[in-house]
Amino acid sequence: MSNTSEQEHNLSVCANCGNGKEASINLKSCAACKLVKYCSRDCQIAHRPQHRQECKKRAVELHDIELFKQPPPSEECPICFLQLPLISTARIYMTCCGKVICCGCTHAPVHDNEGNVIREKTCPFCRTPFAYSDEKTIKRFEKRMELNDPIAIYNMGCNYSDGGLNLPSDHTKALELYHRAADLGNAQSYYNIGIAYRIGRGVERDEKKAEHYYELAAMGGIVTARYNLGVIEGNSGNMDRALKHWMIAVKGGDYNSLKNIKILFSGGNATKDDYANALRLYQAYLDEIRSEQRDVAAAADDDYKYYESGF
Questions:
Q1: Whole-angstrom Cα distance, residue 157 to residue 96?
Q2: Residue 59: which domain range?
Q3: Any domain includes 94
Q4: Phi, psi of 46 (to 5 degrees)
Q5: Residue 7: what pLDDT?
Q6: Do 144 and 131 touch, CB atoms closer than 8 A?
Q7: Alpha-carbon span 105 to 252, nearest angstrom
Q8: What is the count of structural domains for the chain?
Q9: Which residues, including other chains, have CB under 8 Å from residue 257's CB and lie 6 or more apart?
């Protein structure tokens, strides 16, 4: 029997008792490996000893397929429609409308409907005046949170973690908000949860849980989490896996991953082609995010730095 026909057979009958050809039998796949099906929980338990090794191997393979997929593309600035830079100094979340604006657009003049420059500091997207007090900013965050805005929820988690906006530092509250934001699709929150488990901030230190949340963040496109996974693999001697993580992170603009790939190359753990490809990927990222407006912003104010380059 060929591998294909054997696999089809495994999925058409119960792996333990062989039942399943009858239309009345409802088979359910093994949740971990998807390789076999069972007609009942009892059959799954009875078959576990002989299936365990194959199941574990396939589950690892499936996990790696998901883990090393190219993550979704990063967001675009809603004004200039260019990819938002990775570095946090290159973007700002607007509490008035919930938009994330790039440094170039936040630095550029804002015009009214008649084309006149608005002198008051206003949101470049919705033209709402800036909130200049912690109290007003918190109220705006709270309104966005009522709308289940995951970025607002995440940012308030950061404020509770760091004591921002004159809020009391509360790591338990921060984690609660990170989990809520993550459930709404904010991958950055997974990374912050991972950090909390790595250093024991508000929870018991747990390296395994930290790695788990880094993986969730990395699959959501957070390149700093991807970089950390590469470090974990490199420290464990798994240089091939470290390289795979850092290659993905470089494509997303992570400069530290590029530096580590250079170190791998210098140590004989990556090829010349690997390093050359990493350089090309990083340059492609810079080309994607660079604009004249962002260059002007960066030249005018060091706070608007939007990329790193030293190679």
A1: 18
A2: 3-67
A3: no
A4: -65, -35
A5: 52
A6: no
A7: 21
A8: 2
A9: 223, 226, 227, 230, 245, 246, 247, 249, 250, 278
**Nearest CA-CA partner of 220 in 195, 191, 200:** 191
265 shares a domain with 155: yes
Place of tokens 């574990």: 56
Predicted confidence (pLDDT) per residue in 136-186, tens digit:
999 999 999 999 999 999 999 999 999 999 999 999 999 999 999 999 999
What are the strands, taking DSSP E only, across 88-212? 91-93, 100-102
How far CA 188 is from CA of 50, 218, 233, in Å, comes to 40, 9, 21
Cα 195 from Cα 206, distance rounded (Å):
10
Are 253 and 224 in contact by the 8 Å Cβ rule? The answer is no
* Domain limit, last residue, from 30, 46, 67: 67
Residue 190 covered by a domain: yes
CA nearest neighbour of 88 among 258, 253, 296: 253
Tokens encoding 248? 């993905």
Give which of 194, 198, 200 is closest to 225, Cα–Cα: 194
Q: Identify the DSSP state of 30.
A: -
**Whether the model pTM is above 0.85:** yes
89 domain-assigned: no
Provide the token pair at 188: 């950055």
Of the candidates 41, 39, 42, the one whose C-alpha atom is nearest the C-alpha of residue 19 is 39
CATH number at residue 285: 1.25.40.10
The total of other beta-carbon atoms located within 10 Å of residue 108's CB is: 17
